[in-house]
Protein 1
Amino acid sequence: MIGQTWPSEMRDFRDEKTGRIIRQLTQTGNNVHLYFTENSFDANRPEIIFLSDRASGRQKKPDQQPHYNLFRLNLESGVIEQLTDEPMGSAENLHAGPVGSVTKTPDSQIIVYRTGNKIKKLDARTGDSITLYEEEGAYTLGAPSIACNRRYIAFCRNEDVNVPDGPNYTGFKERFYLIKDGRITLAYLDGSGWFDVFKDTHQVGHFQFCPDDGTLGSFCHEGPWHLVTQRMWLLDFVSHNVWPCFRQDEDDSVGHEFWTRDGYIFFDNRGPGHDGTITSSRTQAVATDIAVKQSTMIPFIGLADRQGNVVRRIDMPYYCNHYHANPDHTILVGDDVDDLVLIYMDDKEPGSGSQTRLEVLCNHKTSWHTQSAHCHPTWSWDGKQILYASDYGGQINLYLVRPE
């Protein structure tokens, strides 16, 4: 029920590996923060926006399709408030369903999310909600992104293909080969309409608007990284021109790109034979002949400018699954197989020859079984806290840790 509240579930404990104090934020049901390319934190208030199935009335494991809705948690009081009450979907009612991919403005006033075959907008201050897009064709909807001018969103649509779906990247390789019609679609935030900006012959994903330019966005050719020949692309919403970002070579396996606050595109290059995955068996999902963290080239992370040119390359002793940068991208947080690690980048200016220093932040203990159980560590807007998820104990919960 919208407006229902839960008392604080916060508790503090000491990480057994590093001794740092960890604050567990949730303890009821499954609780998932926004994807790492987004930010659950409110830029102005001590709050986060997150997904939870606590109001569903059903106790489910993370791989049993929990019915998620949107919630707000006050980081000082711990009080949790329900923001949406989307009904459960069915084969007969495709309009309903759990809340899926979510994006929001930094101040958390505008929240846009996918539910069923719709993309909806919620004004979190007034509670008003409208439908921005409803899929009536044979396409699946990707995660939305809000332009910085707050006039429109964009998202990916891919032709709906018949492949298995489930944990540990089930269907990942099959979708890569089967999907031949992918589109980037724009929808106005006032609900007045939508149109396709770009049509591709590949599966497209990971669409993100530039943080300070509403006419520029990035997207990817989705699939196992070692099979994708050119992962990252930039899209001009005025001219509809598309151009590659970091032109790949034969040995490159690239992914998990995101925009930094000052408008660079961060990316991860793991080298030959890496598909960008990790499973609950601590193996890759597709490139199973290459062990996790095994590499025939030095992995590196990079920053590209808005023309797609690499302006900084940083060699890594090994790779993490995801990275997220602090506000001035001098420190990364990464989710290694068992730990969260801090990666200090000594060279603060774009350039070559940068060095790194790694420090274990805490032991996350997640299983990697489902996408929602991935840690996806994310810095707060002020760079003082890191939010992450773990399914240690059987259900997904949210945790805060301070990097100092």
Note: The chain has two domains: 1-124+367-404, 137-319.
Protein 2
Amino acid sequence: MFDLVIEGGTIVDGTGRPGRRADLGISQGRIAALEDLGRAEARQRLDARGQVVSPGFVDLHTHCGLDPKHSRRGGSMNYIQQGVTTVVGGNCGFGPVDFEAMMGDLECIDQNTNLAMMIGHNSVRGAVMGQADRPPSVAELSEMKRLVSAAMERGAIALSSGLYYVPGCYAQPQELAELAQTAAGYGGFYSTHMRDEADSVEEAMAEAIAVGRASGLPVQISHHKVAGVPNWGKSEATLGVIDAARAEGIDVVPDQYPYTASCARVGTIMPRWVCSSGDEEAHARLRDPGTRAQIKEAVVKLYKSFYGGELERILIASSVIEPGLVGMTFAEIADQRGAEDVYADMAEFVLELAKDRPASCDTMCTSHSMSESDVERIMRYEHTIIASDGWGVDVGAGHPHPRLYGTFPRVLARYCREKALFPIEEAVRRMTSMPAERLGISDRGVLKAGAWADVAVFGADTIADLATFEDPHRYPVGINYVLVNGKVVLDHGTHTGVWPGVFIPRTQ
């Protein structure tokens, strides 16, 4: 007898093969059969007639984990509503350093989704060196290697870096290569938010590939983009760089979210040298009239070039300091402030928001810095994995990027069904078996006998994202059932009250 049978659906198994009509039988949390099970005994049956039955989506790039600002119940309702059954945290160089303590904390938290974690270079460097803008000493590098080894031994699935952010931006290539070589002794891969995704994106990609070449680790290019109006069209060149590396034998793969806008802390608009040596030094620089003028000049230059002079492209996504401005664009804020020189005024506004904690200011901005043609070119690239770059969020909290609610349904609805960039089987593959393979997980991301029963059931013609930049807190439609480890977690949009997600450690 099966615990559960999903009957009447079209099986899209995650491999890219054409869908086929079959029932799916589940026993003890795993897939036991894919065949006609109309006469089989089952404790529960789900009707999937006219629906697609696919593996649950695997989100390779999230910031989920144990951040207290997120829901204590796994912080992933926005993911389960998309059909996501496994999330990977610790991306962009940030996350827990003490994996043993993290494992203990996880035992106290109910999880919707399965969770894997990376060990982040920024967090490791910060724990050892703070925000120092210099190479590590021999002793400091040794301690960083020890922390990376300890995390990998306790199940970290990869080493991540965030070279766009403080303090990772102060690291030189040799430091990254040595830490990646340490991680390589345990397997996994090297995931990087590159040092630059704009004017120097090709050079930054070459640096990432060099780390893979030196360490032997596969390389994951996080949320690949070419940002800034002057750089639109460069994706053709960056994808060529990836192809050249792959031809050399280096396993390089990009991931991407399907939007023209990104989201980051407001302090990232400022030059990175502002934050070196810590918040106290940064605050002192912002108080010095000459240095402050220099910083403002750099920010104004960025606005005029990077955003094409259009302050409508930037809006406040969240802010404890200025909650009343959440959801407003910089153009609207400048108008509200009665600014004569809107660029100078917005530069001053940014400096005021970030003056106390430039590197970690709580205010987040969503900015439209990419072209739709680049988004489509990167998505069409045969090695691109779909990922959200999101995090667990409670409905109504702030004004987040809509990718937190809509990434996976958006690809299926907009880019697969409407724009026909690729067939549904290929779209599902990019969301399931491709990221699972990168994670080294052979029993998730596919529908096959023996695999864990992480499953999404959705309508190919009805699935759609509803979250927008104006109204982001909206769940998608068209997803009928989501199962995690054989348990029905979502039933036509309603949470069933079970929390079957588990921690997935790296395996050799």
Note: The mean pLDDT is 93.
